[in-house]
Amino acid sequence: MPADAGPAAGPPDAADAGLDTVPDAAGPDTGPDLDAVVSPRTGIVTHVMPFVSELLPRAMVTRLALTARPELLPGVAADFSVMGFGVGTSAAEARVGAVGETLERYGSLVGGALVPVERGSYRDLGADAVPGDAFALPSRATPSSCVPWDETAPRGWVEGHDLTRDRRVWVPAQLALPCYRARFDGEDLSPWTTTGLAAHTDPEAAVLAGLREVEERDAFTIRHLNRWTPPEIPLFGVADDVDALLASLPRWLDLEVRAWDLTLDLGQPVVLAGVLPNHPDLPPFCFGASCRGDYPSALRKAVLEAFQIVAVMARRGFPATATAEPLEELADPEDHIRMTCQPGYRDSLRWLLHERVPWRPPGGRAPARETTLAEAVEAVARRGMRVISVDLTPPDLRELGWHVVKTLVPGSQPLSFGRLQCLGGERLYRLPVELGHRREPARESELNPAPHPFA
């Protein structure tokens, strides 16, 4: 599913019900056990269904997972369900991805509504509180409904765990909880984002997954806004199953697949993959990104994510439904995909598509061992930043051995959708100078004004 998509409406087609409620055969890395959460009668996830598209590589498998129990979703109509999408090169891998994404969204909505909120000002909480201006917020030069940070103003706070310093901290609730506005209005420091949400049976694995998403979005957004061309990664010879995946593409399908190394300074490889179709029923650009512990794994996941966007957008009738809209009316990820269908949008991607920078993989092309959470946190700490996790696990998922977390890295650059961009963070301007892309920091007016193509 596109990033930051909210709950999806509609029950599954009756003909599809139960198509995949029996566990798939185990693969080499099928992830957590799903038996406890997937059941048409008693499970939080009621159905996991195939999602078929002739536009996908034959070696790629997709699954769609939907939850029941909509009465537990705060503020959501009874006919809504939460939906997750999974991709992989096996049914088991796709199933784990779909169920995990569904539980992440379900758990954050239900658990987020149950998290205790402490009221007070930053000064009231003292040294245990993380100030709002430690995060990248919207620029004050941009009119918005967000309020400026005020350390004396009362607001909601939720408890988090600072993994960098191994201590309890308080973070602004609006930055950590979905649907927070429904509880306390007038505290928006920044648009809320799903970035950093993750679900897993291993709490450390959940935090690591959330941290990797934060690093992925940070790298992409800094490069996009600064028009900072990343090195291009050769598609073949880096990851064996990517080679096999691309070799299984339908021969009649006219498209180009490319990949770039977005990695900046936070320690873990970040890869962007682009599927550029020449097809009347597809947007001209479909991108996926991934942060993993080594380049082959990151490349593999990014390519799968890009083709996932191809499948979803084709099913939804793009680009026929695309209409020209002013930037201020871009409200969600799909609007950004519509924008890429407009004449002339390719020119805004010249920094990515037309400039060529050779790739020099650090340490050769052999897969590295998997990065641990402690190593990933240490790498962030070396850059003067910290990793904070907020536990959003609702009671029903906790009883089944699952954990839902929101991982925050104050100072990292968020990926924003629509007109309101978070351009007030120091890192956005400082890092391109530190890493040699610019001689001096860009002015806000010099940043890329084009909507990003990410979904």
TrEMBL record:
InterPro entries named among the record's database cross-references: TOMM_cyclo_SagD (IPR027624), YcaO-like_dom (IPR003776)
Superkingdom classification of source: Bacteria
Annotated spans, Disordered: 1-35
Signal sequence coordinates: none
All copies of domain YcaO, residue ranges: 86-455
Alphabetized PROSITE patterns for the sequence: YCAO
Name of protein: YcaO domain-containing protein
